[in-house]
Amino acid sequence: MAVIGLCSWSDGKGWSRLVDIVDPDDRTHRLLLDESLFNGSLAALLRPLGGSGVQIATGAAGAEARGRLVDLLCAWRPQEKFVRVSRTGWVDDDFDTFAPADGTVIGRKKAFLDRETGIIGEMTQVSGSLGDWQEM
After folding, report:
1. Going by C-beta distance under 8 Å and a sequence separation of 6 or more, which residues neighbour residue 22?
2. Please, what is the average pLDDT of the chain?
3. Model-level pTM greater than 0.85?
4. Digit-coded pLDDT (tens) for 9-61
5. Sheet arrangement for strand 81-85
């Protein structure tokens, strides 16, 4: 698990931590942990981690492990910044970064396509380049 960056909408709201998790099948999942989760219950913060494959011991050892994991996540504040986008297309009005449906990013900024807004990434295919789009 690694907190790889901080993420917000282009208007500076909706701050989250972008976390990479490797599940027991060795697949990497990237998810957002909204900052609001850090001010709520322990269970609410840990729920999305468990859904992505994080396994924590049970009983007294598990309680201590959960507490340490939360402490780690609270302290882990990387310098890397990402723009959070809810749809494919240009990330903002600068028109220098494009977010295709497959979750990749073309351009200058780092961005994260928040797939919780729908299944568009599963319904479309990506073609072309940033230059092609700029020429349109």
Report:
1. 1, 28, 29, 53
2. 84
3. no
4. 989 999 999 999 999 999 998 889 999 888 888 888 888 888 889 988 888 88
5. 28-34, 16-22, 2-8, 81-85, 111-113
